[in-house]
Amino acid sequence: MAENEKSKVTKQEITQELKSSYLDYAMSVIVSRALPDVRDGLKPVHRRVLWAMWDGGSKPDAKLKKSANIVGDVMGRYHPHGDVAIYDTIVRMAQDFSLRYPLIQGQGNWGSLDGDSAAAMRYTECRLSKISEELLTDIDKETVDWQPNYDSSREEPKVLPARLPNLLINGSIGIAVGMATNIPPHNLGEVIDAAAAVLEKPKIAPADLMEFVKGPDFPTGGIMYDRKAITEAYATGRGVITTRALAEISEKKGGQYEIIVNEIPYQVNKSELLIKIAELVQDKKIEGIKDVRDESDKDSPVRILIELKNNVPPQKILNQLYKFTDLQKDFHLNMIALANGIQPQLMSLKEVLEHYLEHRKIVVRRRAEFDLKKAKERAHILEGLVKALTSIDRVIETIKKSADKDDAHKNLVAKFKLSDVQTTAILEMRLQTLAALERQKIEEELEEKRKLIRNLEILLKSSEKINGVIATELRELKEKFADERRTKVIVGGLKEFREEDLIPQERAVITLSHSGYIKRSSPDIFKTQRRGGKGLIGSEVGEEDFVKHFINADTHDNILFFTDRGRAFQTKVYEIPVGTRTSKGKAIHNFLEIPATENISAIIAYPLGKKGELAAGYLVMVTKNGVIKKTALDGFENVRRGGIIALTLKKEDLLRWVQHSSGNDEIIITTKNGQSVRFKEKDARPMGRTASGVSAVRLKRNDEIASMEVIGGELAKSKNTRLLVVMANGFAKQTPLCQYKIQRRGGSGIKAAKITAKTGPIIAAKAISMESELLALSQKGQILKTNIQSIRLAGRATQGVKIMALAGGDKLAGIVCL
User: Fold this and answer.
1) Tens digits of per-residue pLDDT, 731-785?
2) Are the beta carbons of 331 and 312 closer than 8 angstroms?
């Protein structure tokens, strides 16, 4: 190596060199490739494409030009990074499903929502769209700075004048080094209104801008929820915006339903969406879909038809599709852009508008300065022409006496005190200018230029007038390009997405067998019969199985399952599988992690508040051996999938009953041998979840608790309240509640029914008032629906009347009052 070459080598520690080189690379990617400029909303490749097309004459009113020709111009003059990247950029700017306001007007195959690629560049043609003109207008008036291209053979703009806030109306996506940007498209009219508001009131609160910008406006439409989350995202520049497809449920003949999807979330591949739905059906993650068809065509770009099987709730299927597919998709808003062309910055909506407006102020000022300079130059020439025309005879005589052109120029300057520019204009003046009308035109043009100069000088001295020019131009653009919003925003509806939002709210009957098979049915499937009938088959339980629990609830309710060992598990009523009147149901262990050694002993359903909060009050629990415990319901707000402790039990005891109370109710407990005790709920003080409880009733030998009922305050005071007592062999009776006197907790109680071998033990006791129908369910699955008024009103120590004829070996398992 030569001595002079050695002197050029600098020793550098390798980690320091890697750090320095990587930072250089990162900044190159950030500034020159991945992030848009906040001023015109464009990355360098987009800007170069638009400028090359403008400079090459591919304007909106020009003939369409082959895309390959455009790509060649861009690559050869400004962007030597390969034709694929350039053509992909052109394609995206021409797709009406990618950009809210396409910047390029294309002809040919430009791809589709199904993910189809555009045709090769040799087949497609394009030119700038009309809206692109607004990004490039005034670029020839020294409104922006220029820089040399890659080989310094020509100049390219550093930024476009951008009369439109393109970053917001079309959005941008980019992944740099250590950062990324994801800005959604917006409605042009809304963004212009917001920009005008910032211009008028610079100190406007970011939240107030949401009065104008409702949220993103995606070219593919859809529905957005949670206005609060949208507002927070725009205030900080970062957040999650949830979008759902526009789907409607259509009822066909015969009670069948179909789901029709007409709009899908932004950037969702329609073809892949259909494949995903088919896979979910095949894997049985969604049950109830019969067929899925893509009926999209030229008139309906998106139309997905989902046919459902018979007796399938369409809202539940639609909800599952939202949950498992891209029919619901989160847009992760991350508004990072380059400020001043070099500084990456996370910006709020207001900050983006402020940077854009600051750019427009500079552009308007530089345009005015350019126009002023040109107007003064022209006025200077016109003043010379007017001076010459006023003394035209002397001017002509001077020119005639001159030896040549240069001598004439010199003589005119000396004699009439003209500038070089004015003298040149006079020498080039045509003879037709000497006509009276032509002279008048020159004088009128001069007056016009002088007026323009005055106006421009006033404009340049007033920032308020510059703001007025910007506001006027924005209004003109709104009138020219604004259209209706495509993406709908739910303003006062859901605060957050919950599955029950798309589940029909209706009553349901839930049955659970001894072996753990559970199902949900509508009460309407059972027809009313006379007292004493056999009932209908309600469940196909096995020979060794029997129905154990039977409750009435709302599909939107929470439902708590309590095991005999005092553990609690939670789910939603609508998540319980729907079954027919005769179906067996599904195993509860499929969706609840209940230990194999424990059995469900109590089920309680309770509604949530309007905002999704837990209902007020307590859960009253009673064990087989007569222990009672009261715990606040909010202690069960966060029930883990593996369950939580609800009650600590002694080894020989089991949890049997749980009911919801207000804290000021009454409780009546009945035993299987016919005793009952009624006491004030306040006799049992509230305890923590893991407490053991206190004694509720003193049991006699061979007796155990058969039923526990919480009686609400109004129900306890009403003279019409009765206690409906039902016995295992199908007997029942009603007794006025007032016959059961209020006692102290812990006593042995009074008679509730006359128990004999004929009636069997008590299995349930319900306090009723307005209820009109009774559903009685046997252990072998028979269900009887009958009028409560057909059950005789009788005293406490009676055995009642037969309400259901049971088959041999069958017993009543439970009742529900409707």
Assistant:
1) 999 999 999 999 998 888 899 999 999 999 999 999 888 888 887 888 887 888 8
2) no
DSSP one-letter string for 29-96: HIIIIIS-BTTT---HHHHHHHHHHHHTT--TTSPPEEHHHHHHHHHHHT--S-HHHHHHHHHHHH-T
Phi/psi of residue 251, nearest 5 degrees: -95, 130
Closest listed residue to residue 384, CA positions, set 455, 457, 446, 456: 446
Instruction: Out of 122, 142, 161, pick the residue that ends a domain.
Output: 161
Which is nearest to 213 in space by CA: 306, 348, 324, 344? 348
Same domain, 414 and 538: no
Based on the fold, state whether residues 469 and 515 are members of the same structural domain: no
**What is the rounded distance in angstroms from the CA atom of residue 589 to the CA atom of residue 580?**
20
Task: Report the number of secondary-structure helices (H) and strands (E) in the chain.
Answer: 18, 41
- Residue 20, token pair as written in the block: 């320095």
Q: Residue 231: what residue type? A: T
Catalytic choice (22, 78, 101, 123): 123
DSSP state of 120: P
Answer yes or no: do 758 and 810 share one domain. yes
d(CA 603, CA 511): 10
Residue 611 has pLDDT above 70, yes or no: no
| Lookup: tokens for 121 | 């560049």
Q: What is the spatial distance between Cα 50 and Cα 206, in angstroms, rounded to a whole number?
A: 32
Q: Which residue has the tokens 């000022």?
A: 365
As for how many domains the chain has, the answer is 4
Say whether both 468 and 578 belong to one domain: no
Q: Examine the fold and report which residue of 161, 183, 217 is the final residue of a domain before the chain moves on.
A: 161
Query: Which residue's structure tokens are 């610079």?
Result: 202
Distance, CA of 379 to CA of 369 (rounded, Å): 15
* Backbone conformation region of residue 368, classed left if phi is above 0, alpha if psi is from -120 to 50, else beta: alpha
Q: Which conformational region is residue 414 in: left (phi greater than 0), alpha (psi within -120 to 50 degrees), or beta?
A: alpha
* Phi (first) and psi of residue 772, to 5 degrees: -120, -20
- Please give the sequence-ordered ranges of beta strands (E in DSSP) within 662-791, or none if there are none: 666-671, 675-680, 694-695, 705-711, 722-727, 731-736, 750-751, 762-768, 773-778, 782-787
Active site residue 356: no
Cα–Cα dist 455/465, whole Å = 10
Kindly report, residue by residue over 211-237, the tens digit of the pLDDT: 999 999 999 999 988 888 899 999 999
Of 247, 245, 219, 216, residue with least CA distance to 229: 216
pTM exceeds 0.90: no
In a shared domain, residues 264 and 402: no
Range of the domain at 278: 246-326
Same-domain pairing of 584 and 717: yes
> Are residue 268 and residue 156 in the same domain, yes or no?
no
Identify the CA nearest to 581 among candidates 310, 726, 730, 777.
Answer: 777
The DSSP element (H or E) to which 600 belongs, if any, is strand 600-606
Mean pLDDT taken over the chain: 86
pLDDT band of 351, cuts 50, 70, 90: very high
Answer yes or no: are the C-beta atoms of 776 and 700 closer than 8 Å: no
